[in-house]
Design brief:
By secondary structure, the chain is mostly beta strands. It contains no helices and 13 strands. The N terminus and C terminus are likely disordered.
Length: 172
């Protein structure tokens, strides 16, 4: 794997929460056989010595973050934000229950989309609601303008301590 240091001065080393960040390197990522990726996508990787962050290094390099943004007594809401590319994304959610994995996965669709402010400007975010429990969430994101594609898979679970007073995702 060939490594490069970027010329972009904004990405040079800085101090975040008392941790010295190392200068980022560029690595190329090809997701794998089952992922319909059309480009060998470059990403910036940066570390503070303990954690590694990955960010987009081109219009064809998408990153996806998923988090639980609200939980009530019977259901929870997950919100996804892709970054990189044009910001005009199409989302497709699927999930399978860990306790009932032999039931297979269930496709949930695109969810409810929002336009949100991101580091790169405006972007499309997506939220989905489903019953509380333990799941593996799968999310496909496609950039409508560039054709870039990212598959994200993550284990999520409802919290025993959450209340219906949790805040909804911030949207604009």
């Amino acid at each position: 794997m060939k490594r490069f240091t970027p010329a972009n001065e904004e990405l040079k080393s800085n101090d975040v929460a008392g941790k010295e960040l190392q200068p980022p390197i560029v690595n190329f990522l090809l997701e794998g056989d089952g992922i319909p990726q059309h480009y060998l996508a470059p990403y910036y990787f940066q570390t503070d010595g303990h954690d590694i962050t990955m960010s987009s290094a081109s219009p064809w390099s998408l990153t996806v973050d998923v988090g639980r943004t609200k939980q009530g007594d019977t259901s929870m809401i997950l919100t996804a934000l892709a970054q990189g590319g044009s910001g005009d994304y199409r989302y497709n959610w699927a999930v399978y229950s860990l306790p009932d994995f032999n039931q297979g996965f269930k496709e949930l669709g695109g969810g409810q989309t929002y336009v949100v402010d991101s580091r790169e400007g405006k972007a499309t975010s997506s939220s989905i609601e489903f019953p509380n429990g333990h799941y593996v969430v799968m999310l496909n994101v496609k950039d409508r303008a560039t054709g870039a594609f990212k598959h994200h898979q993550q284990q999520v679970f409802s919290s025993a301590f959450a209340s219906s007073e949790d805040s909804p995702p911030a949207v604009s």
